[in-house]
Amino acid sequence: MRLKAVVSACLAAVLLVAGGAYAETTLRFSLWRDLNTWDGTMAVIDEFMRRHPDIKIEVEVPAGAYSEQLLTMHAAGVAPDVMLSEDEPFQSLIEAGVFLDVTQLIERDAAQLREQIEDYWPTQHEVTIYKGRYFGLPGQVGGGVVTYVNLDLFDQAGLPLPADDWTFDDLVEAGRRLTKDRNGDGTPDQWGVALTTSWPYALNWVWSAGGNLLNEDRTRSVLDEVEAIEGLQFMSDLIHVYQVAPAPGTPGVDWPGGAVGMRFLGSWDFGQSLATLPFNWDVAHLPKHPERGTRGTRVTWNIATISPQTKNLEAAWEFVKFFSSIEASRIIWEQSRMPFPPSVSVARTMVDPSTPQREEVMIEALLEYGRLQPITPYWNEMGGVFTPRLAEMLQGLISPTAAATLVAADINAILGAGQ
């Protein structure tokens, strides 16, 4: 039986008849409406209810800011039984008591979970842990950042696809050959590179230069150290020195329209790119630092969690285990063609030699140089001080050294206040 969703302004509720080991249990499951994976997620719910006919799943899609709605429902004592969480607000919501510590459940069911846990991506194991305890299992969406390449523009410029071990220097050279003033007005209307300027994407350049945002135990910012500043400097130089990337707000920068040679986007953009990009394209690894040979890709994952308010713990846990399973990954991939599932083995099945895109690059990036975002309970506050300084730097209003120094000081004040 196919699941039928009824979506209102506040909630999307889904009901199916059930009957079996849980005495007509109803679970409320909260998530956001991700169009890339919605059909696959609904298919997973269908399959779970087919296997557990006594458990009904009601799907809720809160209106407004998702994490804030979870916090509001928890405070009002009406939290859903099961919730999908993004990794960025995960720790702050744990501190607020929104998610249940499931460490004992994982230990109890270790034999049953062993195969799927061993099949998770290394960073997925890390993302579910806070202060040595587990607060969920990996959700079904995530991945890392790679280089998306407009093959048509590369062919026109006589450029080969970037090699797996290409460097910052190679990126600059390709960018120069791709950047063109096609209408002769003195301003480029075709760019070699368009940077993704959201602050977490800056971490790719910081890591690739050998730096970091925080120290190992995430108690202090190290963005003002030499290597981290070098990564920010390279971002700035792509715009202001090499002039192969536009400053934020530059008009006419059109990646979907085919006027940009390279973008640095997530594996979560892969499915949408397949469906919408009108030109030939492929993916390549991120470039390495030319001297250190280092690189790092920002990795982010969702987490399936349980509310401590649930009155149906065993049923909720059964659903979370299935939702995070290899079988669920397979269902979502078959339905949505959306990388990356929380299963290395299923991800490997997405590699299709008959397609123009090298899906294996995304797998290699996650396994070889994927790095989880250095999340703390103060992630939003950290972003609040990083974002404006990054914007000023990319506009050429302040130097990378000044931006890094100011951001590090502000983050240290935030972390110090939270100790």
Give descriptors for this structure.
disordered N terminus; two-stranded antiparallel sheet; globular; single chain; 17 helices; alpha/beta; 9-stranded mixed beta sheet; 419 residues
Proportion of residues in extended strands: 15-25%
Count of DSSP helices?
17
Global Rg: 22 Å
For the termini, the CA-CA separation is 51 Å
Number of DSSP strand runs: 13
The geometry reads as globular
Order of helices and strands: EEEHEHEHHHHEEEHHEHHEHEEHHHHEHH
Helical content (DSSP H or I, runs of 4+): 40-55%
Low-confidence stretches: 1-20
For the biggest sheet, the summary is: 9 strands, mixed
Mean pLDDT: 90
Structural category is alpha/beta
SSE arrangement:
Blueprint: E1 5-7, E2 12-14, E3 25-30, H1 38-51, E4 55-60, H2 66-75, E5 82-86, H3 90-95, H4 103-108, H5 110-118, H6 122-127, E6 129-130, E7 133-134, E8 137-150, H7 151-156, H8 168-178, E9 191-194, H9 199-208, H10 226-240, E10 260-266, H11 270-276, E11 281-284, E12 297-306, H12 313-323, H13 326-336, H14 344-348, H15 360-369, E13 370-372, H16 379-394, H17 400-418
Parallel strand pairs: 3-4, 3-5, 9-10, 12-13
Antiparallel strand pairs: 1-2, 5-12, 6-7, 8-10, 8-11, 8-12
Helix pairs in contact: 1-13, 9-10, 16-17
